[in-house]
Structure formats: C-alpha cells, structure tokens
Design brief:
The complex is a heterodimer. By secondary structure, chain A is of the alpha+beta class. Chain A has helices at about 15-20, 105-115, 115-140; strands at about 25-30, 35, 45-50, 55, 65-70, 75, 90-95, 95-105. Chain A has one domain (about 5-145): Jelly Rolls, CATH 2.60.120.10. Helix content of chain A is about 30%, strand content about 25%. In chain A, the strands form two sheets. In chain A, strands 1-8-3-6 form a four-stranded antiparallel sheet. The longest helix of chain A has 26 residues, at about 115-140. Chain B is an alpha/beta fold. Chain B has two domains: about 5-100, Elongation Factor Tu (Ef-tu), domain 3; about 105-270, Rossmann fold (3-Layer(aba) Sandwich). Chain B contains seven helices and 16 strands. Chain B has a seven-stranded antiparallel sheet. Chain B has a seven-stranded mixed sheet with strand order 11-10-9-8-12-13-16, with helices on both faces. In chain B, strands 14-15 form a two-stranded antiparallel sheet. Chain B is globular. The two termini of chain B are about 25 Å apart. The chains are: A alpha+beta, B alpha/beta. The interface between A and B is large, with 32 and 42 residues. Bound molecules: flavin-adenine dinucleotide and FE2/S2 (inorganic) cluster (FES).
C-alpha cells in the first residue's frame, strides 16, 4: 500500500517511518463500517491508504453529524496518545477503506523505549492536531458567507 | 498603460443581451451574454468585465465562460448591483466594458502539473481556465481541481465538474454537510494531500475568500511550490475599472490593471499588511 509523501508520515525521518510502519498491519473496511465509537477505548489508530473516513459526534435522537473527513495518507485517531485514551469523536467509513492499523499500546511502548522515536511520533501527531485546529478555526470564520466589510467572494 | 488597456479604458459600455440565465445556488446565477451589435475584444480566463445594470450601476465580474462572441458571468447577489444582475431575465440588456485585468496565463504552463484550488464563487473565474486545460490535456502535466464550498447546495456547476473527472482529479469538500452528503467535509486545504502534482514544477491557480487564498498559498509554499508559481486572484472594490480612480489600490498595485491575478510573491507581503 502506498503512503503519500505529505500525509501523516511525511514529517518522520525514513528510519523513524520504517520503525513505525514495522508495527502496522494492513486492514480493510467495507463502506459504512463503524471503526470506533465516541467515548470508546482508543486502543488502535490507522493511516488511510485509500478511501474516506468520516469523523462524527453522537447527538441523541439525530443521525451523527459528520464534522470532518479523512482520506489517503491521513491519520485516523490521536486519542490513543493521551490519557485517558478515549475517543473524542466516532469514526465511520464513507467508502471502502484500505488502511494501516497500529496497536496503540505497542506504539506507546516503542515511544517510551526510544525517546527520540517517541518525540518524533508525538511531534507528528501534534502537527496533525495543530492543522486540524487551524482548519476548524478557519471553518468557524464561515468564509463563504457575505463578509461585513469589503468584498471577498471571488 | 498598454495600448489595449487605454482603448478599453476609454470605451463606453457596449449593449449585451441576456441569452440565457441559470440558477446555480440560492443566491448565485450564471448568465450568458451576447453582443447586440459590436462585440468587445476577446477575454482570456481570469480577466473581468465591468457589467452595468442599467439604472443601478456597474460592478466587476470575472468571465466564467468564453464562447466565441458570447460572455458568461456567474454572479452572486450580495448587494444592489449584483442583486440586479442576478435577477436579469433572458432578453434583457446590460452594458459591458472590458476586457480588464491580468489573466491566469495558462499558455505559459506547457508540460507542468496544474493545480486549481477554488473556494465558493472563486470557482467562477477558474472555470474557463479548467475548460481550456481540459481542451488541451496533452499540453500540460496532470490536472487537479480542488473545490470547497460552504454546503453541498452551494457547490457551483456540479454537473459540469462531475464531467471534469474524465481528464482531471476533481475533489470537492464542504464545511457544512447535509445528512445525505457522502463526500468530503473540511476546508479545501485538507484536499491537498490527495491532489496529484509535483511541487517542484507545478503551477497553482487559487481563487476564493482571502483567508482561504492565504491558507492555501502558505500550505503550497510549505510543500515546496515556488511562490512565483502560485497565481492568486484578488479583489478590491472597483469603480472605474480602468486604472484611474485608485479605488482598487493594494500597496503599489492597482488591481484592476496589475491584477486581479498576481503571483503569491507579489501578493503575500501586501496581504499581510492590515491597511494599505
Ligand atoms: C476583479 C473582480 C472580479 C469579480 N468577479 C466576480 C464574479 O465573477 N462574480 C461575483 O458574484 N462577484 C464578483 N466580484 C465581486 C463583485 O464585484 C461584488 O460582489 C460587487 O461589486 C458587489 O456590489 P453590490 O453593489 O452588489 O454590493 P455592495 O452594495 O457593494 O455590497 C453589499 C454587501 O455585500 C458585501 N460585498 C461586497 N462585495 C462582496 C463580495 N465580493 N462577496 C461577498 N460580499 C460582498 C459588502 O460588504 C456589503 O455588505 C468580483 C470583484 C472583483 C474586484
Ligand atoms: S478601479 Fe479605478 S483604478 Fe482600479
């Protein structure tokens, strides 16, 4: 399975990337599969090879609204790195998905064993979180709505 | 001032008849105009016209389609003039001046991967560029078109963009999905991982709300695209459209003449200054 250059793994050195990938195995999910539930134990994580995964929120009495989608090369799940290791959101496949799956306990163990590797992985995950925070803030601006000042549509 | 610019600057608006009107989204319509008599000189993708709603006023509108003597514009109703132009019906007449401004200059990009990134109505000025690239696919490298919109029903030209898939990688994302939306959700920059382009040689064409342009261009530079190879289309209020009144000034640039399409090398330092 190819892993794109600019995805989650792009920020790791080849040595650290190989080390992390050695802990992975390939999995596939049919479209419409729930991968994990909000609040569940974050004991695994994935890097998408192909297909689309939707992150959703549980709202009682309504179909779960989708807050973001993740595609090729992207990291699915970061709650496995921080206590209490519980998913903040749910995830369901939108299409058939091929992914690399990692056992969180194993990866955390490898990070503790080799602090340089641990720092690199934490750094990568932090970058993903920062990018998603920035994207969320941008969406809060509701840029496509009419601006109160001068133009900004075209 | 170039000779061509001086000519279009001095010219009065020419009458154009509305040949077709199509509703794209709740506040946006695409109108096809044909000259009543003499036609304006040819437009190139990225250029704009000053379109006059008689008795109301004129505003800059990019060309969203170029077909012989016919001009296509996509107009979003945000105020009095754009509202009047959005409401025109086939058979009515409007006044048109142009062509104005710089274009996307696609012809310089032979052999390169092309990356088109559009936010909201920013897809309008990019549509003729995509059409021109698709018409001559062998001339360029790979073509990726990334489209972001607020919600699925605000996506422009959905029927047409679906057909673009045959020659390009087209990816679409929305900020606020409807329950039945099965595509991507998130800002348009999140699609960059799935675009097909070689950052060291690709040329990017970006149009949308200014913060989206900034976020996209910065991300492209981070990925290794040279700022000179990123072209963005900027907007400022325009009155004369002809380089005389100074309303469209951005630092040393008059955007009606030196823009709207400029390289990121030129645009970036100007956009970072709050008031110019
Ligand atoms: C080079 C260039 C090309 C353009 N191409 C297009 C195009 O292809 N299609 C198109 O629909 N528009 C385009 N615009 C923007 C368009 O010119 C403006 O929307 C228009 O001038 C608004 O005039 P108005 O009299 O209708 O509204 P105004 O009375 O001037 O404004 C009404 C309200 O809308 C807000 N507003 C003004 N401009 C915009 C804007 N661009 N987007 C959102 N809200 C705005 C104002 O802040 C105000 O609150 C372009 C602008 C430029 C400079
Ligand atoms: S609009 Fe008058 S100088 Fe540009």
């Amino acid at each position: 399975m190819t892993v794109v250059r600019h995805g989650f793994l792009g920020a790791l050195t080849p040595a650290h990337r190989d080390r992390l990938l050695a802990l992975a195995h390939d999995v596939s999910f049919p479209g419409g599969t729930r991968i994990f539930e909000e609040g569940g134990e974050a004991d695994r994580f994935w890097i998408v090879g192909s297909g689309l995964v939707a992150l959703d929120v549980h709202v009682p009495g309504r179909p779960e609204p989708v807050v973001e989608t993740l595609g090729e090369g992207e990291l699915v799940g970061w709650s496995w790195l921080f206590e209490p290791y519980r998913w903040h959101l749910g995830a369901r496949t939108r299409t058939a998905v091929l992914a690399r799956e990692f056992d969180a306990r194993q990866v955390r163990g490898a990070c503790e064993e080799d602090p340089a590797f641990g720092l690199a992985v934490t750094h990568c995950v932090a970058q993903v979180i920062a990018r998603r925070l920035q994207a969320t803030r941008t969406r809060l601006l509701d840029l496509y709505g009419p601006p109160p000042g001068h133009g900004g549509g075209t | 001032m170039t000779g061509a610019f001086a000519e279009t600057a001095a010219a009065p608006p020419l009458p154009y008849r509305v040949a077709q009107r199509r509703t794209d989204t709740p506040d946006t319509a695409t109108i096809v105009l044909e000259p009543v008599g003499t036609a304006l000189p040819p437009f190139t993708p990225g250029q704009f016209a000053m379109v006059y709603a008689f008795g109301v006023g004129d505003i800059p509108l990019s060309v969203s389609g170029i077909d012989g003597r016919r001009l296509t514009h996509t107009v979003r109703a945000v105020g009095a003039i754009s509202g009047a132009l959005h409401g025109v019906r086939p058979g009515q007449t409007v006044g048109v001046r142009g062509p104005f401004g710089t274009g996307w200059e696609l012809s310089e990009e032979a052999g390169r991967d092309l990356l088109v990134v559009a936010g909201g109505i920013g897809l309008a000025p990019l549509r003729p560029l995509v059409r021109a690239a698709l018409a001559e696919l062998g001339r360029y490298g790979r073509l990726s078109v990334l489209i972001g919109a607020r919600s699925p029903h605000e996506l422009l030209y959905s029927d047409e963009t679906a057909h673009w898939q045959a020659g390009a990688r087209v990816l679409t994302t929305v900020d606020h999905p409807a329950p039945d939306w099965m595509g991507d959700v998130g800002v348009v920059t999140t699609l960059l991982d799935r675009a097909v382009f070689d950052p060291s040689t690709a040329t990017a064409f970006v149009c949308g709300p200014e913060p989206m342009i900034r976020a996209t261009a910065d991300e492209l530079v981070h990925r290794g695209v040279a700022p000179d190879r990123i072209r963005v289309s900027l907007e400022r209020t325009m009155h004369c459209g002809t380089g005389h009144c100074g309303h469209c000034q951005l630092g040393p640039l008059l955007l009606c003449r030196d823009g709207p399409v400029v390289t990121w090398t030129r645009a970036r330092p100007l956009l970072l200054i709050r008031e110019l």
